[in-house]
Amino acid sequence: MSALPLAEPLPAGVTPRRLRAEILIVLGLSLGASAVYSVVQLLDLLTRPTALGSQQATLNTSLASRELFDLLYQILQNGFDLVPVALVAYLLWRPARPHLSRLGVDFTRTGRDALGGAGLALAIGIPGLGLYFAGRALGISVDVVPTNLAAHWWTVPVLLLSAFRSGVTEEVIVVAYLFARLRDLGWKTWPIILSAALLRGTYHLYQGFGAFIGNAVMGVVFGWLYTRYGRILPLVIAHFLMDAAVFVGYPWASHAFPALFGMH
Q1: What is the model's pTM?
Q2: Helices (runs of H) and strands (runs of E) counted in the chain
């Protein structure tokens, strides 16, 4: 039995057409735009003389040559990327407590959610790394560099902020919000899960086909868990832990295992 909140009657004046427009606007301000850019980036990579597997994508890059302004730009970029999350929280806010229940948030079992998220991070993260290296070996994934930020006192906090932003944005919008609104439109469970997973894979296409497959599979797993338990915090925590481990651990791992990361 699904643990998702039931679809709610649309408020007066809100038609399915208006609701579809809302979804398109939210996605256009967030991960839908990322998906479009990602498709174009992949086409750009595929039409270059260099093979896809020999190209590189960097996730956390320096935004200014001066340290102070680099820090300020990093904070601003991550902060403004969270605005669409605030938007969907506003759109699905309920007057009665828990106010964010339609997003699967109630903060009543944070300890259990944290443990579940940590276990999920291990269950998804380790096979995910294996799939990444398999994609690199097959030449269907680019060389993903998690960060090229210089070593400053704020580098690790900024990378953790980036991991937090990624986890919150993706899980709240692609899972919690999209599942709620598509359910309001009368969609069934598995079409919702598969559509959200396809979106998740698509906005990772700039990393190559391996990333598309891996993230789409992750999307199916996360979507099924959300429909089963109706809680978004374990997914956010799992996503944050996986990204944090990769972002913060990359400098050490790339120096410890240079051949594995294509460094000589």
Answers
A1: 0.92
A2: 10, 2
In whole angstroms, what is the distance from residue 263 CA to residue 256 CA? 10
How much is the average pLDDT of 188-210? 98
Phi and psi for 61 in degrees, rounded to 5?
A: -110, 160
Contact 82, 169 (CB under 8 A): yes
Task: Compute CA 225 distance to the chain's CA centroid, rounded to the nearest angstrom.
Answer: 16
SS3 59: strand
How many angstroms separate the CA atoms of 125 and 127, rounded? 6
Task: Give residue for tokens 């340290």.
Answer: 67
Burial class (CB in 10 A: 0-12, 13-18, 19+), 70: buried
Residue 201 contacts residue 212 (beta carbons within 8 Å): yes
Q: How far is 117 from 239, CA to CA, in rounded Å?
A: 8
pLDDT tens string 112-167:
999 999 999 999 999 999 999 999 999 999 999 999 999 999 999 999 999 999 99
The C-alpha atoms of residue 194 and residue 198 are separated, in whole angstroms, by 6
| Among 105, 147, 168, residue whose Cα is nearest residue 245 | 147
Chain centroid to CA 36: 15
Residue 30: strand, helix, or coil: coil
Please say if the pLDDT value at position 263 is more than 50: no
Mean pLDDT of 52-77: 97
pLDDT of 33 above 80? yes
